[in-house]
Design a protein that fits this description.
By secondary structure, the protein is α+β, with helices and mostly antiparallel strands. The protein is built from 6 helices and 14 strands. The chain is 17% helix and 19% strand. This is DUF1963 domain-containing protein. It comes from Streptomyces evansiae.
Amino acid sequence: MSFTTPPRPFDVTALTPRLAPLARTATRLHPRPGSPTVHDSSVGGPLLWPADEPWPHCEGPHDASLAEDTPRSAEDIRALRRVRAASAERRLRDRRAPVRTPEEDEVWRRHGGGRPWFEGPVPMLPVAQLYARDVPLPARPAGSDLLQVLWCPCGHGVSEPRTALFWRSAATVTEVLDAPPEPPAIEKDGYLPRPCLLTPEQVTEYPSTMELDEELQDQLSDESRWEAAGAEWDDGEAEDPQDFYFRNLATAPGWKTGGWTFWSLTDPEPRDCPTCGTEEIPLLTIASSEWDDGSVSWRPAEDPADPAQHLPGDPSEPTLVDIRGGYTLQLHVCPASPDHPHLQIME
């Protein structure tokens, strides 16, 4: 099925026309649990990886003392997720049903205890595979039609998991790697994306408040301008008009390509390429959720308002990815050359 972002509560360019030339197109990926193949665009799905090309490994360092959660194998995490999903479905039918059955308790005992920490290079995990036929890919190198994103199963400081990008032409992959290696342990369950298919949708974005000049910020703060334009900003969640703009009219939440950089934790920082100094542009946003209480206006019309009526799990958290308890990891690339290092921004 397709997913449709509701119309924005208000055309903000009617409030301040100076925003019009700042509009950018972002592509919301709308990941939803499924069974992708190597020929699908996906989150957490199998990659069209050449059988004769080495699988990427992270060289570290991987400090066990910095681990936030109990390290588990990918098999452990998948088994425990099946138990949680079965429990949620059972209790949705009958609230008096047991949280776990004896069989599920055994699965928990077998897989919940954790795994030994690893040393040395560790296989990276698939995060996303995006075909250009499905998803617009900013700064796509000539001759490529496929982007593959992987990351380390271990956090690396404030930037979270270390990511790796691979551009390739799908037609050149004649023999696919059948069984990619998996890391012996994953630091957090939220670093293993649940396999999801995508239903991309293009939306219009505007800069975060902190990227606007003082005049535009003042115009957005002026309640009389909102009143004159016939716009309502007090939706019960926003603290002021600027906050309403930030939550509902600027950048879309969730997994997406392109658009504007999202800023919430820090002031905007330089995004200069470390090789050539060109400003890097947003490529892919990896998100912990598709929306939250403050951005519910972005919830697709097809998703239920009550998460309890949706299976499997909360529709706002389809990938089960968790970046530091709910943040995003934004990957930026240099438009001058795909060979230049990409940047990670956690917000």
